[in-house]
Amino acid sequence: MGKVYPEIDGRLRDFIEAQPVFFVATAPAGADGHVNVSPKGMRGTFVIHGPHEVAYLDWHGSGAETLAHLRENGRITLMFCAFAGPPKVLRLHGRGTAVVVGDPDFPAALSGFPDAPDPHAVRAVITVRVERVSDSCGYAVPLMEYQGDRDLLLTSHSRRTAEDLVVYRATKNAASIDGLPVF
Fold it and tell me: What is the CATH number of the domain that holds 127?
């Protein structure tokens, strides 16, 4: 049976921090838009700022749905699944904001991730004001063994200069698949 919690307490913090992957879900405001779910990971790229606030690093990628949806309506859900140990699924529902590379506040936002791998390819820092914390059983989530973080994202972007990433954002990340502006 699921439970709703008033905040991210110490036990929930420990659970979140132990998960090597989480999922981000967003959607545009309109009924015809596409719902997006994205896996996120890599150690050092997620932080808990308090009982009602978390943040994560958003890397340059093949799309920019989360950024477009947050810009439009701010709705976001983060989901953590226990793939090892006792079963559990934890969801953080809230409102997200993005501080994008080039924004004057970006260096300060990025400084909140001292254990992050090379931040060269970070596109934005997403902060979520958590409004609802809930769990469910997770009985159907498979047991899986964590082998480590992939380094492909970092190595592929290491070949790009800061100017290359500006062009990448302008050509590949300017709009969502529904045509919503990203920046």
Answer: 2.30.110.10
